[in-house]
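Q: Please design a sequence for this.
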């Protein structure tokens, strides 16, 4: 999740810079950071799901009153937090890119 926050923050900074001063170099940097954010989001969700799968038997042994489906559903729900953060950041960056492209078309 820390890498997701780092790449997401850098992506938003690059997106704002592109929106303020459009240019091909800034666009390429923003798109590259967007790809890094996307892949980091997928990695974070995958890691969280793997952790849930690994920890469920131990958790059920300590909490016999819980059922397997309820524990798995709770784990999956918590594992999707990085996807929510990552997709939100990517959507904001897409809006910034759209603004930069619009401003670039006005300057041409």
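A: Design:
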């Amino acid at each position: 999740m820390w890498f997701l926050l780092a790449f997401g923050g850098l992506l938003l900074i690059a997106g704002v810079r592109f929106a303020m001063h459009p240019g091909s170099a800034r666009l390429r940097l923003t798109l590259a950071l967007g790809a890094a954010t996307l892949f980091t989001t997928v990695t974070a969700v995958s890691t969280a799901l793997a952790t849930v799968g690994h920890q469920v038997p131990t958790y059920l042994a300590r909490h016999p009153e819980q059922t397997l489906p309820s524990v798995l559903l709770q784990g999956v729900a918590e594992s999707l937090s990085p996807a929510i953060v990552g997709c939100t950041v990517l959507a904001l960056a897409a809006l910034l890119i759209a603004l930069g492209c619009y401003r670039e078309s006005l300057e041409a």
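Q: Thanks. Anything notable?
A: The chain has a mean pLDDT of 96. The first helix runs from residue 2 to 20.
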